[in-house]
């Protein structure tokens, strides 16, 4: 007779999920160095730890800020960006998309509600394109890993990409090419969605136990999320600087022409790096010879094509709108790189 109380062995799927964790990837990277090149292990570990320590104050500020915004219910303000005239809605959606403290999974139920309320697809596209690029947390992470001019340029690129995509989508919609674009609304979100219904934020979160609990929960979740991804990012950055020849990087994405910028967008699109991992890796690439315009193009394209960002779009609209999202993303990434290169 079998013992039904015996602990259940993990399934193959559960084991695979654990192995795909950033913690596992970080450990495997260091173990590989220790086995194949042990004399480099201390240098790589020290470089990664020093970079993470330098970013830690920014992480803590970002965690506290996002937790406060979520606990206060400030995301209810975002829904107001989609009210009123279509052109005005696009502008406000692009601005709010770059400021909203949403993770990508939260965009799914949020936008599903907006679609159900009849919000214009052009404004939603503006929000979709701007949202993966920047938020209060990733702005601070980018400034720490690169510098404030690059972080401000990235924020500007986010708003610019939202405006570009929103007005392009409005033109296509008015030409009759984007009718009936929504899929059937999902029955469930990811469990952490924002409600676009009207309402006022409650800024004094310390007066309610539920909001204090939400602040602690959101803060811890974001701290763990940022830590695990940034540890991996800085280990990869140290590996990149140690083993990637500077001459090769400079020959492919160096220089100031349009070619390296376009190539970086095309490479960044399938790389689908989120806005927390990309800054550290790009810092290493720029140290090896990557141009600033190519770095901006790579970052914009990678954020737009990150798996969570694409999932948020694919879950809600039909394939032609998803293809439009990717096309606008890569074209906007190239334009952002060209403009940033010219300005810098």
Automatic annotation (TrEMBL):
Keywords, comma-separated and alphabetical: Cell membrane, Membrane, Transmembrane, Transmembrane helix
Domain of life according to the entry: Bacteria
Entry annotated with the keyword Transmembrane helix: yes
Keyword Mitochondrion: no
Localization of this protein: Cell membrane
Pfam families: ArsP_1
Membrane-topology annotation of the record: Multi-pass membrane protein
Segments passing through the bilayer: 20-36, 48-67, 87-103, 110-130, 150-177, 223-243, 249-273, 294-316, 322-343
GO cellular component, one term: plasma membrane
Similarity-based family: Belongs to the UPF0718 family.
Full protein name: Permease, putative
Source organism (scientific name): Maritimibacter alkaliphilus HTCC2654
The organism's taxonomic lineage, starting at the top: Bacteria, Pseudomonadati, Pseudomonadota, Alphaproteobacteria, Rhodobacterales
């Amino acid at each position: 007779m079998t013992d039904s109380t015996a602990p259940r062995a993990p399934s193959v799927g559960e084991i695979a999920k654990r192995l795909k964790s950033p913690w596992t990837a970080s450990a495997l990277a260091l173990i590989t160095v220790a086995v194949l090149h042990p004399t480099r292990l201390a240098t790589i570990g020290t470089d990664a730890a020093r970079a993470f320590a330098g970013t830690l104050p920014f992480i803590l500020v970002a965690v506290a800020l996002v937790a406060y915004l979520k606990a206060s219910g400030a995301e209810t303000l975002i829904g107001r960006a989609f009210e009123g005239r279509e052109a005005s809605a696009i502008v406000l959606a692009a601005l709010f998309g770059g400021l909203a403290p949403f993770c990508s999974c939260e965009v799914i139920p949020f936008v599903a509600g907006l679609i159900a309320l009849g919000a214009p697809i052009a404004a939603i596209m503006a929000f979709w394109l701007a949202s993966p690029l920047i938020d209060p947390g990733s702005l601070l992470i980018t400034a720490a890993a690169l510098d404030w001019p690059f972080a401000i340029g990235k924020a500007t690129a986010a708003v610019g990409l939202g405006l570009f995509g929103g007005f392009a989508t409005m033109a296509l919609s008015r030409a009759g090419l984007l009718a009936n674009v929504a899929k059937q609304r999902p029955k469930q979100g990811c469990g952490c969605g924002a409600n676009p219904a009207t309402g006022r934020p409650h800024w004094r979160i310390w007066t309610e136990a539920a909001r204090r609990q939400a602040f602690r929960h959101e803060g811890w979740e974001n701290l763990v999320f940022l830590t695990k991804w940034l540890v991996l990012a800085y280990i990869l950055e140290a590996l990149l600087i140690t083993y990637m020849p500077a001459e090769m990087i400079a020959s492919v994405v160096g220089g100031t022409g349009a070619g390296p910028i376009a190539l970086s967008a095309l490479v960044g699109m399938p790389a689908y790096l989120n806005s927390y991992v990309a800054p550290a890796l790009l810092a290493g690439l720029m140290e090896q010879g990557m141009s600033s315009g190519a770095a901006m193009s790579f970052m914009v394209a990678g954020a737009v094509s990150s798996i969570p960002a694409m999932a948020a779009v694919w879950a809600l609209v039909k394939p032609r709108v998803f293809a439009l999202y990717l096309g606008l993303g890569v074209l906007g990434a190239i334009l952002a790189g060209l403009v940033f290169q010219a300005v810098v």
